[in-house]
Amino acid sequence: MKAVLEVEHLVTSFPGVGRGKTVRAVNDVSIVLHSGEIVGLVGESGCGKSTLGRSIVGLEKPESGRVIFDGVDLGSLSGNRLRAARRAVQYVFQDPYASLNDRQTVGEAIDEALIIVGVASKAERSARIGQLLDQVGLASAVRDRFTRELSGGQRQRVAIARSLAVEPRVLICDEPVSALDLSIRAQVMNLFLDLRDQLGVACLFIAHDLALVRQAATRVYVMYLGKIVEGGGSDEVYGRPSHPYTQMLLASVPEADPMIERRRKIPLIKGEIPSPTNPPSGCFFRTRCPLAVGECARIEPPTIFLTPTHRIACRFANEIAQKSLTDA
Amino acid sequence: MTAEPILIVKDLTIDLLTAHTAVRPVDSISYQLRRGETLAIVGESGSGKTVTCFAPLGLMPVGVKADVSGSVLFEGTELVGANEETLRSLRGKSIGFIFQDPMSALNPARRIGHQIAEVAELHLGITPRAAEARALDLIKMVGMSDPNARLKQYPHELSGGLRQRVMIAISIAAEPKLLVADEPTTALDVTVQAQILRLLKEIQARMDMAMVLITHDMGVVAGAADRVLVMYAGRQAEVGPTEKVLVAPRHPYTMGLIDAIPRRDDAIGSRFRGLSGLPPILGAPIKGCAFTPRCRHSVEGCGAQRPPLRTTADPAVMAACPVLNA
């Protein structure tokens, strides 16, 4: 499979306010996206997952590192060529109530995007709007409705149609269904699966809902305090989580079956995510880690590959993986 | 658990009147709650779960007039139609509240120690000094590290999880008999959610408190609630013991909701299960069963008459479904 988007050693920092220190929201992150693939990016709030997404599309300016689209480093481009590359990577925002203009009709909202791409004739644009609405599963009758008249799920579909108007190769979806009701979520999730299959779009799916990501994504990255701590196939990361943080995260998700949930041993988790202005020395997770030893405070954890695709930033990854095998 | 219910809600109906519109977010809700018991009220946005709990206590957004009918008996006191004074004496004292977003519920300009002590002083009638000591106890009780330093901090200095712990400390300051928790963990991360739910359970057991837990997360219901009430379009769809309703749901809406939860044995990359169609828009009361347009099992006649809540084949579970009832 060909990589459509590669992120290499990306660092994005925010200056501290007043005496505050600089926050490295994205700290040396490398990830890959292939065409026609949904890749999950999970982690707790404040871990930097949205900043990573925003840095990829240029909404934040990375301090160092590279974003490579279709083999070309975006940092080496400027002018029209940069704009064209940027256009191919679109962002879908979490809140469809904030991302659409209330005073536009659905047709106008999509038309705006088509004008920017330079679809010249009105007839062509109109045909394309009909096509896009069909693609996102909306009846063409909604074209003349104001976006404010639509439900959350419908609005998110319009937002997706707008991103698709520019024929992107990559969608960065930042919690695209977390503002939607449970009964509507499945409909929008299935739309992403369809877009992947029909258009071959690659999706970076940023979410905190681990169960949702497991089902939708073929690969997943787990982020903690600006760093990727574990990455691999969904079957690997969910089936054999080998970073203590991933294990903790997965064990915290409640089960909807009361028989399982009441017997479940909820892991005793120490504290909360530390302040990113002052991250711990060595391994960032060591302050909450049940396995931490003295060495973890001194040296950054090595990256261990359990398989060619399954990577973990923890010195104990092999032992953890072994143990989860014998436990299972 | 004592036999006598602490809260008896009967045929609660609420009409909300703004300058332009009239809607009925709560339509004939009935339930009971005993000490030490937790009832989860589950539903999607707009299903009326929050209004059900807050309107009878006089907690409504500004500019909205709530027309409340039916009966809400709390420890023998009728809340429907009660004057503001009666309601005020209950709020925060015998009935505690936790809201979804602790940041908007806390005063950003006051130290958290003050905010907790204030409630203790007001409702327990103790001296400011005693109230401060009480605040310190409460901070310890909700499991915050370095309690003395915490008292002097402002809400913005705390993480979301710690803020919610402060909210819990405030809500239990006057040792309420009933705690109403509206999506207490929705704004929190899963790891913190587990901690907060455990804390709520511990406190509930210690104080033998009844709890109404408003949530949309079936995982939270499974772990925390004894009974569950499923709401759809302001009405009760199904109500019964958690282990029965979540494992063998009977109402087609409950079935759909539970079926929509991704499961561990779902294949990676497989399609998501969900309900078709859209939830109804709040408006005038719906004539028949409100779920009819989305229901897989609907038959002719479902839309004609509103189904009453009836006992199902399992006497502990009640559901309002014309097909089940027939």
Automatic annotation (TrEMBL), chain A:
Alphabetized SUPFAM superfamilies for the sequence: P-loop containing nucleoside triphosphate hydrolases (SSF52540)
Residue ranges annotated for the ABC transporter domain, each copy included: 5-250
Nucleotidyltransferase found in the keyword field: no
PROSITE patterns, per the entry: ABC_TRANSPORTER_1, ABC_TRANSPORTER_2
Cellular compartment(s): Cell inner membrane
Gene Ontology terms for molecular function: ATP binding; ATP hydrolysis activity
Regions that span the bilayer: none
One of the protein's GO biological processes: peptide transport
Keywords: ATP-binding, Nucleotide-binding, Transport
Chief site of localization: membrane
Membrane topology: Peripheral membrane protein
GO cellular component, one term: plasma membrane
Record InterPro entries: AAA+_ATPase, ABC_transp_ATP-bind, ABC_transporter-like_ATP-bd, ABC_transporter-like_CS, Oligopep_ABC_C, P-loop_NTPase
Superkingdom of the organism of origin: Bacteria
Homology family: Belongs to the ABC transporter superfamily.
Name of the molecule in the record: Peptide ABC transporter ATP-binding protein
UniProtKB/TrEMBL annotation, chain B:
Species of the source: Pseudaminobacter soli
Family: Belongs to the ABC transporter superfamily.
Pfam families xref list: ABC_tran, oligo_HPY
SUPFAM superfamilies in the cross-refs: P-loop containing nucleoside triphosphate hydrolases
Boundaries of every ABC transporter domain copy: 7-258
A GO molecular function held by the record: ATP binding
GO biological process assignments: peptide transport; transmembrane transport
GO CC aspect terms: plasma membrane
Lineage per the UniProt record: Bacteria, Pseudomonadati, Pseudomonadota, Alphaproteobacteria, Hyphomicrobiales
Subcellular localization(s) per the UniProt record: Cell inner membrane
Protein name, UniProt field: Dipeptide/oligopeptide/nickel ABC transporter ATP-binding protein
Key words of the record: ATP-binding, Cell membrane, Membrane, Nucleotide-binding, Transport
Domain of life: Bacteria
NCBIfam families associated with the record: oligo_HPY
